[in-house]
Write a structure and sequence with these properties.
Six copies of one chain form a homohexamer.
Chain A: E1 3-5, H1 8-30, H2 36-43, H3 50-62, H4 70-84, H5 87-99, H6 104-118, H7 120-136
Helix pairs in contact in A: 1-3, 2-3, 4-5, 4-6, 5-7, 6-7
Chain lengths: ~140, ~140, ~140, ~140, ~140, ~140
């Protein structure tokens, strides 16, 4: 590819264009639970664009935003997923949070706090998810 | 009342017993949005126990727990309420968070993060709630 | 219409066929909040079949079933709608329940019980709905 | 049964009366996933009226309505169930849609579209459901 | 512990203070599904306060309230959990309701009624839960 | 800006990079309800990135995908938002669908179909939303 790049704006566009997938892949892999390529391979026959949107938007545009520090981002993610009862994704992010050094006790406390808003069943299901994740890590 | 209190355990029981309502009232009033007594008066004819449970459990037992620092508690609250679409309570806690010095930009960022999990409608509704709250504060 | 009806089965079929709308209309009107014909008129241009399904199925097939006594049916309805946060329909059924002699205190207690499952925001919203309904009735 | 049927209205009533269960059964069996009688047998001890309402109302009154063409009905069903996270029913209708010739790629695209509204967890869960259904069909 | 208790108010405070956990434990064990101590042991490492809040608030403060008779409380619980799709907790309370003498047919009828509000998928999932519970009890 | 673009790949990257906001803006404006710039202006103080993500992802990446024809996309959107009870966004898309020539009767039929899955309250709320939108258009 031969390009005479004389504009910093084009330089940043090139970087940005290439990076949504890269940024998202890096962010996903910080959780140390699944590799971006593995996610893409798992779904390329079923839904070719699924993994692309997850990595580019959810992990690239949103989860990698530096506006909130990384610990806060993970705790907020766990709060939202607990309230929603999204157990599969909750366990994924619990693994990620623990890998990043967030203490399981903090996760337990987030769940109890959220339970006042989303009710005792959601609190119980999320606490069970945490228990399963901790067992898997032994 | 005459009691010979020789047990520290009884001393703490007395403190705890009297304090669930007090602790909860103090915590509620930190939001600087509504006074505990006003809440109780508003509902005493309709549902005598409603305000009691809200203050004793939600604000007393749960929201006042020191396990997470107060900023984190408020941000997690906003995250859960955004995911749940609980607009009334969301606006209340947005007011409280702003009164406690959390920047509106942080709240906006929490909403965008949660929106990846609970969808664009919830993200839009919560952003609108923030806009209304900021307008009310002008 | 001339028919030689010699079969009890046909007789019951005629009764059933004619009655789904009638049974549903009678059940709806027991709430004493809205008349079946008014409901049908309100929606006949927008969605001709909407009122028909609401009256025939929801009120006819389901709400009029004698399996549970009528008080229990109303209390279960209020419980489900509280848990779901379906405020519009909740107020309708609160009006109906009060018209049928269920005490507002019982409704308040149902809401507090359900709130342990669906969380404090739903408990607050439903209690507010009850307060509004009681004010409208003064 | 001897009836002197001189009224076309009665003729159509007889047809309608007998047909809610028949119409519903035919519609259910178009999915080619389960037979109406099997559904009824599975639940007749636990909940005698359950299968009746599912077949008569959901499949009879609603899913068989010709207002929308059959492909559209299936796609809307998949959209709603994806948004609701109703995985069991979603897999049933995915099987039915595929049996009726809707391409799996179209289903994947519906899920991605709905995911913008109901969030990435619902999009992931529905895509996983599609993957499982496709594996079952190999 | 030596105390000269001359105040009935203190006497009742002592009773109340000690009893939230006791009252809750008694209420939980009426379901005859799990013992309070077993619940606490199961979660004491993962989330030390989880079981305490469940027992003290959900079962102690809320579920043991005599305002509604015990049968009604169980039926309302089943209604709310059906509407919410909270299958784990629903099965627990179904077991408890059956242990307390509520007939499975009543539970089936509650589910069908709630299904008109929360939709056929929730009705199907709850009916399936009932079927599984009844099978476990054979 | 001077660039020697000799690579078709770079040419398409430039097009893509510049276009997510453009593509999204065009798609949003097809609804003929609000202009992209107006949306951005409305939220730039409250949440600077909100409108960007809505336009780039929801309308750019997702709603403009040609995989499903445009009518189908709108009908699926209405189905999902009805099931979710997202009334604000539902009214927006109802306006858009009507502007694009979809008949109100089709929208009414989608709502009735979805109501079998998400329940009668959601069916009623969506039908009311349609009624309000049609009134606004007179």
């Amino acid at each position: 590819m031969i390009t005479d790049v004389t504009s910093p704006r084009l330089a940043s566009k090139q970087k940005t264009e290439k990076s949504r997938l890269e940024i998202g892949s890096n962010q996903l892999e910080k959780l140390q639970v699944i590799e971006a390529k593995a996610l893409q391979d798992a779904y390329k026959d079923v839904s070719p664009n699924f993994a692309k949107h997850v990595i580019e938007y959810a992990f690239g545009d949103i989860l990698s935003r530096p506006a909130l520090d990384y610990q806060t981002r993970e705790m907020i993610t766990i709060a939202a997923l607990t309230a929603m009862g999204a157990t599969n994704q909750l366990k994924l992010h619990m693994q990620g949070a623990l890998n990043l050094g967030i203490h399981s006790r903090e996760i337990a406390d987030i769940i109890i706090l959220v339970g006042a808003y989303s009710g005792f069943p959601s609190m119980a299901n999320a606490t069970n998810a945490l228990k399963e994740v901790l067992n898997e890590r032994k």
